[in-house]
Amino acid sequence: MNARIREILNWYGSDSAGTLANIARMLNHGRLAGTGKLVILPVDQGFEHGPARSFASNPLGYNPLYHFELAIEAGCNAYAAPLGFLEAGAHHFAGQIPLILKLNNHDVLHDEKDPLPAVTGSVEEALRLGCSAVGFTIYPGSSHCGHMYEQLRAIAEEAKQAGLAVVVWSYPRGSELSKEGETAIDVVAYAAQIAAQLGAHIIKVKLPTAHLEQAAAKKVYDAEQIPIKTLSERVKHVVQSSFDGRRIVIFSGGAKSDDKTVYEEARAIRDGGGFGSIIGRNSFQRPKADAVKFLQTIMGIYAGDVP
Amino acid sequence: MNARIREILNWYGSDSAGTLANIARMLNHGRLAGTGKLVILPVDQGFEHGPARSFASNPLGYNPLYHFELAIEAGCNAYAAPLGFLEAGAHHFAGQIPLILKLNNHDVLHDEKDPLPAVTGSVEEALRLGCSAVGFTIYPGSSHCGHMYEQLRAIAEEAKQAGLAVVVWSYPRGSELSKEGETAIDVVAYAAQIAAQLGAHIIKVKLPTAHLEQAAAKKVYDAEQIPIKTLSERVKHVVQSSFDGRRIVIFSGGAKSDDKTVYEEARAIRDGGGFGSIIGRNSFQRPKADAVKFLQTIMGIYAGDVP
Amino acid sequence: MNARIREILNWYGSDSAGTLANIARMLNHGRLAGTGKLVILPVDQGFEHGPARSFASNPLGYNPLYHFELAIEAGCNAYAAPLGFLEAGAHHFAGQIPLILKLNNHDVLHDEKDPLPAVTGSVEEALRLGCSAVGFTIYPGSSHCGHMYEQLRAIAEEAKQAGLAVVVWSYPRGSELSKEGETAIDVVAYAAQIAAQLGAHIIKVKLPTAHLEQAAAKKVYDAEQIPIKTLSERVKHVVQSSFDGRRIVIFSGGAKSDDKTVYEEARAIRDGGGFGSIIGRNSFQRPKADAVKFLQTIMGIYAGDVP
Amino acid sequence: MNARIREILNWYGSDSAGTLANIARMLNHGRLAGTGKLVILPVDQGFEHGPARSFASNPLGYNPLYHFELAIEAGCNAYAAPLGFLEAGAHHFAGQIPLILKLNNHDVLHDEKDPLPAVTGSVEEALRLGCSAVGFTIYPGSSHCGHMYEQLRAIAEEAKQAGLAVVVWSYPRGSELSKEGETAIDVVAYAAQIAAQLGAHIIKVKLPTAHLEQAAAKKVYDAEQIPIKTLSERVKHVVQSSFDGRRIVIFSGGAKSDDKTVYEEARAIRDGGGFGSIIGRNSFQRPKADAVKFLQTIMGIYAGDVP
Amino acid sequence: MNARIREILNWYGSDSAGTLANIARMLNHGRLAGTGKLVILPVDQGFEHGPARSFASNPLGYNPLYHFELAIEAGCNAYAAPLGFLEAGAHHFAGQIPLILKLNNHDVLHDEKDPLPAVTGSVEEALRLGCSAVGFTIYPGSSHCGHMYEQLRAIAEEAKQAGLAVVVWSYPRGSELSKEGETAIDVVAYAAQIAAQLGAHIIKVKLPTAHLEQAAAKKVYDAEQIPIKTLSERVKHVVQSSFDGRRIVIFSGGAKSDDKTVYEEARAIRDGGGFGSIIGRNSFQRPKADAVKFLQTIMGIYAGDVP
User: Fold this and answer.
1) CA angle at B294 for the pair B291 and B297, rounded to the nearest 5°
2) Of E198, E212, E206, E122, which Cα lies nearest the Cα of E164?
3) B274 with B36: CB under 8 angstroms?
4) SS3 at position C248
5) Does the CB of A215 have a partner CB in chain E at under 8 Å?
6) How many CB pairs under 8 A join A and B?
7) What CA–CA distances, in Å, run from C218 to B280, C187, C193, C227, D249?
8) E127 in contact with A at a CB cutoff of 8 Å?
């Protein structure tokens, strides 16, 4: 194991050898193995948005095996999906890529301003399917946030006892936040801090804007002149807010956008000290060959091969 | 075991031998044994609609033994019913037909726009009664959907550990859906996807109409020109939305209608790649001899004996 | 064991020897032993209506030992009461009469249109007190009905595992039912069906009137010309709605009324194929000698000794 | 053991030797040992009303050891308090006086018309602290009454399995009761009956007035001419309503009042067949020597030494 | 062990040797070892207020290791923090300072007038991380107070069984309290009493003002002329309200203020018989050397070295 990976594992000194091994498994897999950087393929949109909205533009994606293949061919560090999608392929692809079982999900046939996703999997299922980690979404700002934190607490404790890693999607959302506030830099940094305090090993947040949502926080950002003008500065602040960089923080790609923008964002994440990306729709909603090339360009940016 | 059944079982590679054996048991039983097609007799209407509305037109149906006999004589793949109905005959007919214990039920003495059925059975009861599978209804779109998904998660996990199969009735319904929306093609396809992601082995949905309910989905159906004009095209889309056909999807018969319509629907299901039907009221609300003939005609359509 | 009892036990083929023995214990006890008919003494009115309203007219009834004595002297098949009343006498009268522990109760110091009784006992307590059965009340039509069904499910499963019988009081009540609807024939028959589907061995309902409450049901009763004019026809329909007579259904006596009426009702129950009565206030709210004579007259009607 | 104690224990024939021993321990302790009468010191006012309102008038009472000493010196049968107060002295005074751990409590920093106390202790804690009994408060008439009954059910079952006695404070209160109704004779008698039916060994109620709260009950009290004019008649009716005197019923002292009134009440309790008193504020809110004398006068009234 | 520590441990006679050892561990650690006084460093503001508001003024505080170092260098008795912060350093600093795992937390992305923090840790996690105690916040006055008391009851029972100490943050807050009432002397004294009755070993409250919030309490404070004019008198009353000084009560520092004020408060705490301080923002929001000096001055005041 190289020095950088050893250094990262050292941040998680309170964890068991089993959990450290699973974190290492993800860090040492694929195109970015050993760099300390991560690109993860997540495919939960079939559940979250519906099948046609997710897969009609590239119908191969209806097939759960396709996403395993894409993640493996592109050299992603891990593949994350809900129970059904993993069950459908875990046996075929056993041992070929680290898996993350997403343990809670939400659909838009019934939607709310203050969401509470359903818990749709368990640590035992993750073990049965040979996963390296469990994933869990929290919505800080939701009136149900306390319930989600308590669900995460129980799941994280059980996962750590089982030697798994814990990946937390921390997405501010709820009736007291403005739409703009969901990606405000003070709110995203706070969401990263909450995930870290709840015991996440890997934290996934959205890329923040320069907007400041909370009056009490704005006062401090102004007084201390915290640099948040460029995206790379904001990434740096989020990384700092995640235990001064002692927790792995990765950023989500969001809705489909043009490649140039995604590459620019990856450069900003890299320059700000971020640990990588988790890219779903931008990768599986295009032909596979194209997607592999796209993902590898991003990985190249993180690895330093692509400027 | 023939090649088609072997192929189907292969889709469920993450499951235990016990669960695979129970799926095989249903696929290899009755008139359609070995075809990969299924016709299941479900009788939960006594609970869901009341005894007279269900059985007065054919009073033999008040007797729980009658339905075992009907399913066996007609050569159905399985018989599904709530606890009481199964308890009343499981001992007499032990080993004669695969049984599915329906684990949640709802009655109309108290009805709501956003239904939450009561859990009225358990995996342990299913084992005690010698069942091959448990059945569970979810209502995507209900404000209680998250609670139902979590109930299903726990039940499915326990059922799989016990070597049972999991059959999910996925019926969109709730205050945010229009009446027409409950059978809209985008909504039914989404309901099938949710059931698949929750880990169902067999999914039961209603036959979809060409209506599109959700604005965000409609945009995609239009843009991608997904074919949904004929019933058989819509069945095909639902099958595709169930992990590209790698999950067994069957369709419900609905309220009593004329035989010709039911036969037409069976042909559309067959031509669209559907796996069969689950037919209650149309079969047990007529004289037994007539019902056996009716069910065997449908099975003939699926088997290819009847055009 | 005589043929009739053997026939009845045969309906419960899925149950353990322990549960069958306890059903047989009740059927083979007292004045009606071996007839397949049952008269049960229930005394939960102290809890449900308060002590003075229940016992002031015959103050011996304040004493819990009194009701054991009354049930034994009259030759009832069983005695049913809440935890406190059974605890106060179970030791003294051990082995002298089958006991039914009523596991949920409700009082009128706080009343609601949609009642949810409190669970006030357990299967373990029933075993400790040497009971043959547990009793549980459900209120189909209450907005809390789902919760009660789920409580009953858990209790019935546990009781059956412990070799006890399950007696269900099924009393339609709730904000969507009219007062008249609570005893409407369609509603009472539906309530009996629900109890049977939930796995009850013995079902207790109120005597139904000829009123039809639900529009969708009324259509069927009219179309199929189900005979419901006489009380005995209605009893027959309720018995039919209880798995075509393959579940024991008994009828409650209700508030105190004149003896002639009660005898008439017993004859109608007998002629309609009902299995007997559960009679509280009409028996314990009069002097003991009188009550014994009264109960034995009813038993005589069921046994065929009294015309 | 004398005949009266043996007679009382005989009422609890369904209980284990362990529970009987603990009931006997309380009946055979202190000044009233062997008389079948009880005077208990309860100190939960620090939690229920706040420290200054409870202890400022006699500041020694801030110290938890003080109340142990007072109860021991006065010769009370038992001392009842919440977890913290018992933990603070149980070790020092081990074996010197029977203890009752009060398992639920309520404070007035947040108050409601329909109270639901928090469960603040457990049967396991009672065992750890060497208690003879657990105490639990129910508020019949509260919209939360069902929840409290279910909590009591579980606690009482567990306590009996552990050989402890169960003391129930049954205090009618809630939005449907008038203030006067909380101590109405029909309501207090009903509250005693509910506690008895829930399995209480010792029942604590407030002294009832001659008011009749419930219309349906009033009709019976009038028709049956139940004597409720004098306090002693009302005590007798409450005792009768507690299984015809086969459950121990004691009465609370309420807020501080002049000694003569308290002595008069004790005489009425004695003459009506009540089993004693539970006296908090009237005893610990005065100097110790004075309190000991006061409590011993009351005990004298019960013992028959004081007229 | 010196006499004062022995005396303090003696107050907790009902606790296990394990718990006593952990209380002793805190009392015998750091600059105040053996004095019976405590200064604890708590850092939960990252969760409670957000990272920038907490750490931007001294950015070293983003790093969880920093706070371990600060607490150790300053010679604090213990360091308290949520799960994530402790996990990040417990391994590195194992055995160097007693740790308190804060088991519930609240963030301001979603705030309420009646707060209910989420449970974000467990006793098992505290054991895994080598902690001496668990910390838990209750908000007396919140409409959720009963729920928090019940959570604390379960956690405290489990912690004591595991040989840990229990530290309770008791902060009155809720819709029925005025803003001024949250620190009113009657309310703070009541909050300390509630924590003590719930079984806390160490109680943390805010410094009280002379305001009296509750009418019923005010009457008693006036009648009994309880001295509450000076801060030191009020501290004395709070200590008295905590079992007459037989429970350890410490006071929080609150928002950042000038050093002189903090020193004055420490003197008042010392003179009123308080046991020390828990000081977060005032210490970690300044340069470390400065913070160490500041904390040691406070410790000097408690130790008597600084006037």
Assistant:
1) 150
2) E122
3) no
4) strand
5) no
6) 129
7) 22, 11, 17, 12, 53
8) no
The torsion angle over the Cα atoms of residues A238, A243, A244 and A248, rounded to 10 degrees, is: -70
For the segment A253-282, the average pLDDT, to the nearest whole number, is 92
**Contact C97/C29 with Cβ under 8 angstroms?**
yes
Q: Which of A25, E33, C113 is nearest to D143 (CA)?
A: C113
Cα gap B305→D3, rounded to integer Å: 89
Contact partners for chain A, using 3 or more CB pairs closer than 8 A, are B, E
Position E257 scores a pLDDT of 79
Residue B236: its chain A contacts at CB < 8 A?
none
- Chain C residues in contact with D214 (beta carbon < 8 A): 50, 108-109
ipTM of the complex in this document: 0.95
CA distance B243 to B249: 10
Is A105:A48 a contact under the CB 8 Å cutoff? yes
CA distance D50 to D48: 6
The residue written with tokens 């009382």 in the block is D8
Distances from the Cα of B158 to the Cαs of A157, B58, B204, D219, in angstroms?
21, 37, 20, 55
Which residue in chain E is spatially nearest to A177 when comparing CA positions?
Answer: E109
Residues of D annotated catalytic, as ranges: 204
Question: Which phi and psi (to 5°) does residue D77 adopt?
Answer: -75, -30
**Pick the catalytic residue: B160, B204, B206, B236?**
B204
Longest dimension (CA), chain D: 56
Those residues with Cβ within 8 angstroms of residue E222's Cβ, 6 or more apart along the chain or in another chain: none
pLDDT tens readout for residues B217-226: 999 999 999 9
Please give chain D's pLDDT, 307 residues, in tens.
Answer: 899 999 999 999 999 999 999 999 999 999 999 999 999 999 999 999 999 999 999 999 999 999 999 999 999 999 999 999 999 999 999 999 999 999 999 999 988 889 999 999 999 999 999 999 999 999 999 999 999 999 999 999 999 999 999 999 999 999 989 999 999 999 999 999 999 999 999 999 999 999 999 999 999 999 999 999 999 999 999 999 999 999 999 999 766 779 999 999 999 999 999 999 999 999 999 999 999 999 999 999 999 998 8
Through-space distance between the first and last CA atoms of chain E, rounded to whole angstroms: 26
Kind of pairing, strands D165-170 and D202-205? parallel
8 Å CB contact between A75 and A32: yes
| pLDDT score, position A46 | 96
Query: D78-110 burial, b for 16+ CB within 10 Å, e for fewer?
Result: bbbbbbbbbbbbbbebeeebbbbbbbbbbbbbb
User: Do chains E and B have 3 or more beta-carbon pairs under 8 angstroms?
Assistant: no
Task: For chain D, give the number of residues.
Answer: 307
pLDDT tens digits, one per residue of D139-190: 999 999 999 999 999 999 999 999 999 999 999 999 989 999 999 999 999 9
Helix (H) or strand (E) holding E84: helix E83-87
pTM of the full structure: 0.96
Q: How far is D266 from chain C (nearest CA, A)?
A: 24
Output the CA–CA distances (angstroms, integers) from residue D251 to C29, D5, D39, D148, in the order listed. 43, 20, 9, 21
Tokens of A61: 């994606």
Structural contact between residues A111 and A95, judged by C-beta atoms closer than 8 angstroms: no
The answer, yes or no, to whether residue E254 has pLDDT greater than 70, is no
Query: Which tokens sit at E293?
Result: 């000096």
3-state secondary structure of E72: helix
Count the neighbouring beta carbons within 10 Å of the beta carbon of residue A3.
9
Q: Which of residues 61-80 of B touch C (CB under 8 A)?
A: 62-65
d(CA B232, CA D2) in angstroms, rounded, equals 88
E168 touches chain D (CB under 8 A): no
Query: Which residue type is seen at D110?
Result: H
Tokens of A88: 């459908």
Check C37, C160, C204, C236 and give the catalytic one: C204
CA-based nearest residue to E134, from E106, E108, E154, E116: E154
